[in-house]
């Protein structure tokens, strides 16, 4: 096919419509390029439940084997299950998924041995370059001895490893509703939760890459409405929602109210610090709540603030030796999980924390949810730089106000902060604001939106 790889090779992964933008022959070239760039003699490959995933995954494996790499195919898995395999086997890996994108999309998330990320600056640009060259000149010369293809199921080992990182032995019985969104949570949750004192109420556990019930993106409030309703109807202790490849987890309390990912980050951070003797570095991106660094300090830890994006978090995790990292987008990263993100491990921490005391989840998380946030608000603008400059000028001269440009523009005062950052792919500015109370946040949000949309 006459593929335009610039359209599908993104900053951190491959993502596009199948078969319009990419197909199995191209996946085979990506497999060969992955082996060539990483120098791997063995790799691990897994895939989600999308209709195109098994074929693309097998084609990638064929391309890798043709260049001499032995391929372990772990079949159906969540993205964090693939990271587990990469870490446990110490092999580079490739996961076939398009996360929460519609059914016609698919993609590849690649990592080096030990789940170290592969992005534009860490091999993805070279992989694209090789695939483009081979598209024009034909497939590379196969190795004298091709690699082998071996199937291996890692689900039980993955589940056991996660449970080894959280003490769930003493928790009280809990009723938990889980919305898998027809994604890979329907595959992993029954095994991970097996044997725990949980009354599990499954929603949309049938694996279906066409997402017949709702988009598998729990950050969109529309996609957790069913979960919220079911939690209230069942009188459950909490609800959990996973995205399509089950690497992100979103939590709702016993009232059906969303628990902010910042509150989950603070809760898990406090537990990870306790596991590590009250010491350690915790990473948070700059649009998580003020609550996160406060809680980290209160529990003896050192908070480190980063840009938004998993590559920045993982890089900082590796360089600082951080024990944990969290993002506003419900990605949670653990040193003991090869610095990779796993929503499932965060979910187990929430279950352990809730089950280890008698009160409801709403009361438990209230101490971690101290401020009022706007959520992320996107605005289409003609000139991102001009709008940012206007906002900076508006606040620059005011007393008691500081600013930084670590990622977009962050303006901070004693009672509030906001961040405005440009999208890399669309003509958008993204606003996140937080304040000590609702009236202050509302006034601030509206004031900044007026400047953005002027």
TrEMBL record:
InterPro entries the UniProt entry points to: A-D-PHexomutase_a/b/a-I (IPR005844), A-D-PHexomutase_a/b/a-I/II/III (IPR016055), A-D-PHexomutase_a/b/a-II (IPR005845), A-D-PHexomutase_a/b/a-III (IPR005846), A-D-PHexomutase_C (IPR005843), A-D-PHexomutase_C_sf (IPR036900), Alpha-D-phosphohexomutase_SF (IPR005841)
Cofactor: Mg(2+)
Domain Alpha-D-phosphohexomutase alpha/beta/alpha: 7-133, 157-256, 264-371
SUPFAM superfamilies referenced in this protein's UniProt entry, alphabetically: Phosphoglucomutase, C-terminal domain, Phosphoglucomutase, first 3 domains
Single Gene Ontology BP annotation: carbohydrate metabolic process
Keyword terms: Isomerase, Magnesium, Metal-binding, Phosphoprotein
Organism superkingdom: Bacteria
Keyword Transferase in record: no
Domain (Alpha-D-phosphohexomutase C-terminal) ranges: 376-450
Gene Ontology molecular function: intramolecular phosphotransferase activity; metal ion binding
Homology family: Belongs to the phosphohexose mutase family.
Protein name per UniProt: Phosphomannomutase/phosphoglucomutase
């Amino acid at each position: 096919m006459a593929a335009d790889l610039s359209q599908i090779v993104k900053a951190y992964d491959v993502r596009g419509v199948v078969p319009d933008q990419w197909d199995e022959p191209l996946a085979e070239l990506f497999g060969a390029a992955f082996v060539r760039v990483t120098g791997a003699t063995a790799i691990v490959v897994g895939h989600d439940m999308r209709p195109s995933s098994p074929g693309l995954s097998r084609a990638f494996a064929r391309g890798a084997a043709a260049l001499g790499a032995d391929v372990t195919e772990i079949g159906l898995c969540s993205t964090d299950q693939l990271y587990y395999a990469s870490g446990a086997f110490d092999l580079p890996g490739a996961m076939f998924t398009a996360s929460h994108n519609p059914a016609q999309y698919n993609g590849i998330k690649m990592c080096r041995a030990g789940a170290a990320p592969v992005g534009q600056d860490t091999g993805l640009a070279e992989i694209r370059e090789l695939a483009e060259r081979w598209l024009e000149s034909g497939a590379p010369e196969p190795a004298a001895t091709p690699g082998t293809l071996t199937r291996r199921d890692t689900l039980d080992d993955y589940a056991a490893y996660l449970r080894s990182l959280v003490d769930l032995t003493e928790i009280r019985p809990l009723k938990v509703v889980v919305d898998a969104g027809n994604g890979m949570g329907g595959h992993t949750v029954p095994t991970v939760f097996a044997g725990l004192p949980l009354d599990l109420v499954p929603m949309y556990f049938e694996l279906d890459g066409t997402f017949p019930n709702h988009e598998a993106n729990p950050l969109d409030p529309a996609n957790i409405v069913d979960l919220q309703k079911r939690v209230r109807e069942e009188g459950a202790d909490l609800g959990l929602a996973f995205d399509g490849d089950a690497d992100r987890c979103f939590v709702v309390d016993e009232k059906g109210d969303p628990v902010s990912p910042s509150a989950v980050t603070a809760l898990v951070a406090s537990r990870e610090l306790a596991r590590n003797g009250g010491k350690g570095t915790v990473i948070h991106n700059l649009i998580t709540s003020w609550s996160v660094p406060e809680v980290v300090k209160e529990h003896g830890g050192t908070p480190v603030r980063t840009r938004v994006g998993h590559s920045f978090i993982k890089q900082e995790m590796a360089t600082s030796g951080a024990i944990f990292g969290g993002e506003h987008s419900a990605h949670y990263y653990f040193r003991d999980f090869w610095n990779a993100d796993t929503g499932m491990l965060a979910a187990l921490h929430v279950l352990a924390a809730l089950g280890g005391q008698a009160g409801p989840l709403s009361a438990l998380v209230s101490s971690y949810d101290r401020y009022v946030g706007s959520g992320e608000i996107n605005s289409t603008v003609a000139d991102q730089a001009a709008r940012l400059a206007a906002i900076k000028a508006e606040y620059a001269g005011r007393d008691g106000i500081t600013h930084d440009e670590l990622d977009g523009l962050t303006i901070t005062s004693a009672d509030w902060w906001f961040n405005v950052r440009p999208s890399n792919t669309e003509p958008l500015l993204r606003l996140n604001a937080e304040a000590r109370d609702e009236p202050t946040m509302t006034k601030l949000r509206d004031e900044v939106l007026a400047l953005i949309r002027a």
